[in-house]
């Protein structure tokens, strides 16, 4: 049984000290390592997002509860996650509606995604409830183009303006079905890593943020090109 002399440091400690000294002298190496890690993590997150998008595309485009505007039989689907109190959603609203109207062959799926507080939830519940009375797009447009708060009184005054029965609307807004739909949308957004509004999915491709009309049109054209390539490949 030998005792080591006190002066001899274990090799591991010496190596650790050398690494530390090297890193202190070359701090850029740390930054480089962090950048590599960040890039790798971002790439992994992108892959996860793409996989979630591909595996849940049916639920994204045909969830059975979100309102479908534009041409319900259109060959390209645009899905919009939006909030009535989001200024960027309001700003991109005219571009979006014009793109859909000019094209004539786009299904527009309106995913109510109220994330900016109680008034947003209230507005979404009212819009979804308006589907029963066949006035969704009218109330949606009124609230999307509205300025200022969306209190219950304001929402009901917009509902009156577009010809909704407000008593019926107030009752329908309480439905558990609406709550379930909103919960499903929140869960889907989380899986797709969508945490802001607006977020667009155009022909199965995610485009976060308020995108200008020309980019929207380009993405629709690219989706059509992909579809015709796929058709050619299968024939």
Biggest sheet overview? 5 strands, mixed
In one word, what is the shape? extended
Oligomer state equals single chain
The end-to-end span amounts to 80 Å
Secondary structure tally: strands:
5
In short:
The chain has 235 residues and is α+β, with helices and mostly antiparallel strands. Helix content is 60%, strand content 11%.
Describe this protein's structure.
The protein is α+β, with helices and mostly antiparallel strands and 235 residues long. The protein has ten helices and five strands. A five-stranded mixed β-sheet has the order 1-3-2-4-5. It is extended, with a radius of gyration of 26 Å. The relative contact order is 0.13.
Topology:
Layout: H1 11-25, H2 28-55, H3 57-61, E1 67-70, E2 76-82, H4 87-103, E3 106-112, H5 118-130, H6 136-144, H7 152-161, H8 166-172, H9 176-191, E4 199-202, E5 205-208, H10 213-234
Helix pairs in contact: 5-6
């Amino acid at each position: 049984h030998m005792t080591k002399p006190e002066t001899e440091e274990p090799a591991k400690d010496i190596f650790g000290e050398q690494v530390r000294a090297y890193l202190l002298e070359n701090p850029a190496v740390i930054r480089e390592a962090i950048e590599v890690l960040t890039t790798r993590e971002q790439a992994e997150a992108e892959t996860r997002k793409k996989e979630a998008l591909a595996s849940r595309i049916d639920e994204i485009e045909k969830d059975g509860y979100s309102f479908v505007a534009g041409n319900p039989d259109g060959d390209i689907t645009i899905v919009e996650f939006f909030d009535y109190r989001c200024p960027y959603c309001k700003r991109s609203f005219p571009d979006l509606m014009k793109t859909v109207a000019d094209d004539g062959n786009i299904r527009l799926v309106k995913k109510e995604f109220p994330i900016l507080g109680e008034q947003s939830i209230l507005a979404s519940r009212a819009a979804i409830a308006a589907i029963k009375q066949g006035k969704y797009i009218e109330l949606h447009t009124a609230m999307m183009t509205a300025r200022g708060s969306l209190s219950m009184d304001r929402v009901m005054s917009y509902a009156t303006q577009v010809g909704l029965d407000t008593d019926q609307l107030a009752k329908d807004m309480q439905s558990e079905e609406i709550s379930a739909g909103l919960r499903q949308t929140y869960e889907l957004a989380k899986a797709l890593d969508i945490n802001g509004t607006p977020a667009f999915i155009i022909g199965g491709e995610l485009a976060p943020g308020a995108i200008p009309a020309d980019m929207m049109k380009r993405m629709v054209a690219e989706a059509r090109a992909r579809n015709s390539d796929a058709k050619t490949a299968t024939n």
